[in-house]
């Protein structure tokens, strides 16, 4: 005989309103972003993408000599912004469906969409840096790299932290996520917001990879663990 639990499980798996799988979206976003880092390094003979705080002549030489690496990096950053935007929209809708009426769902949507937009803009600016006519003008290369860094660095990471916080807070208060995971999300979000300091002190740039990569892992875990609907037990 079919039980109530099995019927509920079937409806959950086949619910057309549930949206795309959050965990898969987070994996695709992370894979595209990491692919941009890895492939650009391979195409540049193992040389990492230059820091905007390095020597101007070395930065200009990198972009002049490694246009393919720069183009691939920009293209994959832009591509990664798409699943991130879908993730933000889906997680906001999921939280509303789970009964969350607090601002967290809207904060997650706003943070995720803006983080996606900043990453997309950073990718497009990086793509511009791959154009030969641009690399012949060192002062333009320097300005564009600062812009790409600001958009894809503190701009993207701080807003990514809002996405994490917007999901972690209702995940904790409404018990939608494991407590340890939700608390970890709040800590990651705090580090991400502190990345604003990069705009004031170059030495705080270490906050960016710490917040970025922990946030990526957290979004994957939260995406797979966030339920599609509340389970009501019948006594």
List keywords for this structure.
235 residues; mainly alpha; 9 helices; elongated; disordered N terminus
Model description:
The protein is mainly alpha-helical and 235 residues long. It has one domain. The chain is 74% helix and 0% strand. The longest helix is centred in the middle third of the chain and has 36 residues.
Number of domains: 1
Record field, number of beta strands: 0
First CA to last CA: what distance?
Answer: 19 Å
> Which sequence of SSEs, written as H and E, runs from N to C?
HHHHHHHHH
Strand content: under 5%
Helices, strands, pairings?
Layout: H1 4-13, H2 22-43, H3 56-65, H4 67-97, H5 104-128, H6 132-135, H7 138-173, H8 179-194, H9 207-225
Helix pairs in contact: 2-4, 2-9, 4-5, 5-7, 7-8, 7-9, 8-9
Nutshell version of this structure?
74% of the residues lie in helices and 0% in strands.
């Amino acid at each position: 005989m079919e039980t109530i639990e099995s019927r509920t499980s079937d409806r959950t798996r086949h619910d057309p309103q549930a949206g795309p799988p959050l965990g898969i979206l987070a994996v695709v976003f992370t894979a595209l972003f990491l692919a941009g880092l890895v492939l650009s390094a391979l195409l540049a003979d193992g040389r990492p993408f230059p820091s905007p705080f390095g020597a101007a002549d070395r930065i200009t030489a990198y972009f002049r000599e490694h246009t393919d690496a720069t183009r691939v990096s920009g293209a994959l950053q832009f591509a990664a912004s798409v699943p991130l935007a879908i993730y933000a929209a889906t997680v906001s809708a999921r939280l509303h469906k789970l009964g969350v009426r607090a601002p967290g769902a809207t904060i997650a949507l706003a943070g995720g969409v803006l983080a996606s937009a900043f990453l997309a803009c950073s990718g497009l600016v990086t793509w511009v840096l791959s154009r030969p006519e641009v690399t012949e003008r060192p002062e333009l290369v320097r300005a564009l790299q600062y812009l790409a860094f600001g958009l894809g660095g503190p701009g993207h990471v701080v807003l990514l932290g809002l996405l994490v916080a917007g999901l972690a807070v209702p995940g904790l208060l409404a018990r939608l996520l494991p407590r340890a995971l939700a608390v970890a999300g709040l800590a990651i979000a705090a580090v991400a917001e502190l990345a604003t300091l990069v705009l004031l002190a170059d030495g705080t740039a270490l906050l960016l990879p710490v917040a970025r990569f922990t946030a990526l892992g957290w979004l994957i875990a939260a995406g797979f663990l966030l339920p599609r609907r509340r389970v009501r037990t019948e006594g």
